[in-house]
Amino acid sequence: MPEAVVKKNVNVQLDTRFNLILVGLLFSRIGTNIYILSLPWVAYNLTGSAVIMGTAFAVEMLPFVLLLPFGGVLIDRFDRRKLMIFADITRTILVLSIPIMFWMDALLIPSVFIIAFLVSTLSFFVDVPLQAIIPQIVSKENLTKANARIQFIENLSRTAGPLLGGALIGLLGVHNSLLINSFFYLVMALCIFMIGHIPRIKENEDVGKIWDDIKKGFLYLWKRWDLRVIAYISVLSNFGIALVMSTLVYYLRDILKVSATYSGIVFAAIGIFGMLGSLVVEPLVKKFKRGYVISFLPILGGGIGAFIVALFPNWITTAIGFGLWGGCITTLSILLNTYKQESIENDLYGRVEGSLTSISYLSIPLAGLIGGLAIQGVGSVFTYLIAGCSVILAGVLSFFSPLRKI
């Protein structure tokens, strides 16, 4: 396996190809965060319904449950770099189709649902191959540092994307914002093209039937107690965050009466706190056992953040609570991604990650549907308190499992 860092010195600079990935990722994620803010706005403009907004969120998450085991097999069978380029170009076309249909007076809610489903499906073919190729260009001892840099870029884009998206929606309208957003994915495609060929650890021409490969991913996951626990805590924490994410635009727009610009600031808070999380993750794991950090992040940060959002109905406190929550989730993601990259064989990574992701996302479409109904039926306080309890339960489960010993 090619290594980007000389093993005898873990502090040397990472490979130029890795830096190209970071540049492309920055543009891609800024585009995605503009899209995440804009799509609920489009759905709400068409219907004025929180239930439809929650349903759009649920449809957007369905590919992670229904199709991703198949996607994991494809990622292990085919050239990951080419899959990423194809996915980014296709995402550009799909997002561009929303303003085009609007200008043609042909944009309907079913069209929004279909585009949301397809864009999410294609996003998997960027995100998982990215995680799979990182260990091929970065040495094992530098994985935490590399993942911290990736998460820093993720959170920089979570800050810049919503701020830019809120400003664009306020100045140009939501459909013109999506027009601009669509071209951000092309930068990622260009950067992935420029990194050149990524050698495969193992050729998979004779891996057998697709169902056998899918079964391999789930069986590998089931035989690993640590990966099973990660799946369980992900289901719970994803349910909590999805209750908030699926209703946040409605909450800000209709309950708090916040403009698109201030809504962008609230969404950007998750990036600001997330950048802080990516900066402190290395000192944290040097001072405390990794398993304990994984357990207490959802209990303390996630739970407190959710309760702040629930109990203090103000856009500033919502930004603080949502940001605190996001910072903890960011730090947790760095630790879990590093652990998976260290412990899962690279030639199986796509299948196993596809299986794990499909299980961990089971709760998200359900949370989207429940969130839309709950916030209109019983209000935001009860909805977001349930979200906080779900996240705390994830941390408790992690603490009382062998995962805390890793």
UniProtKB/TrEMBL annotation:
It is a multi-pass membrane protein. Residues 17-406 form the Major facilitator superfamily (MFS) profile domain. It is found in: Cell membrane. Keywords: Cell membrane, Membrane, Transmembrane, Transmembrane helix, Transport. Its main location: membrane. The keyword Membrane applies. The chain crosses the membrane at residues 20-44, 50-71, 178-196, 229-252, 264-285, 292-312, 318-336, 356-375, 381-400. This is MFS transporter. It comes from Ectobacillus antri.
